[in-house]
Amino acid sequence: MQKIKIKKADLVKFLSYFIIFFLLFFWYNKTNSPTFIWDFNSASIYSQEEKKIIWNEGFLLWEKKQEKPYLSISFKPDYIKIDNNLIKILDLNIKSKYFKDKVTPISLVIDWERTDPRWQVSGNNLILTSKAKIDSETIKVFVHELGHIVDIYYLNDNAWLDKSEDFYKISWLAYNIKNKNAKITDFVSGYSLSNKYEDFAESFVFYIFHNEEFLRRSLSNYSLKLKYNFFKNYVFNSNEFKNTTFWSGSIATYNWDSTKIWINLKKYLYYIR
């Protein structure tokens, strides 16, 4: 058998290419992971760097630095005011132990001209109408928007894996194309039928505020069972919100918008403290 001789020059070239490839690979993951640049001239900021190792089904994925969540607030125009108690409630949600590791740093814009929609996610900004009131619907809409943040950033936190895809494929072939066997009863609300992202956010809200009802429906609907288990296993895997109830009375089988289902806001706020 003829021995293969490796020239020293070839070995050096190979190692050089390998190092260059590794550095490019590292740079790509660094630049394509969610990063945030903020204006620190804001009303209130809570920020601190932490290192987070992400595990999934026994495999070590990618190690990245992520800032702890904080809330920065700006006004449009800058002279308008909003109820300080509402700001405190929003801040309480973001810094709650149930959300703080799941939402990215948030910039909240209070917009005088906005009337509809009441809230909107634009990039990593949350835009809120200045006419928002302190009621259960406002807070549920806010949590709905946090659901979009969890979907876009928390579950898509590394270059190789978007865990949200496991949720989407339960009912969706594409952005707004449902699986051919999908039924209305596979969704927690009429609005969740709009597209896969609204399905995620509405289901997120339903899991948090109407967990018992979500679980009850999942016992007779396989798609809802998969959606319920997704949040239980991948978003709230320490039994957060499990078997909780923040409302009294029955919920109609069909609701267009789950944020309009009344809850006891005081009970919810007490729970997340």
Protein model, in words:
The protein has 273 residues and is of the alpha/beta class. It has two domains: 49-133, no CATH class; 164-272, no CATH class. The protein has eight helices and eight strands. The strands form three sheets. The protein has a four-stranded mixed β-sheet, with helices on one face. Strands 1-2 form a two-stranded antiparallel ribbon. The protein has a two-stranded antiparallel ribbon with strand order 7-8. The longest helix is centred in the first third of the chain and has 25 residues, at 8-32. The N and C termini lie far apart (73 Å). The relative contact order is 0.10.
Which SSEs are present, and which pair or pack?
Elements: H1 8-32, E1 49-56, E2 59-67, E3 71-76, H2 84-95, E4 106-111, E5 119-122, E6 125-129, H3 136-154, H4 164-171, E7 172-174, E8 177-178, H5 196-209, H6 211-218, H7 222-235, H8 265-272
Helix pairs in contact: 3-5, 4-5, 4-7, 5-6, 6-7
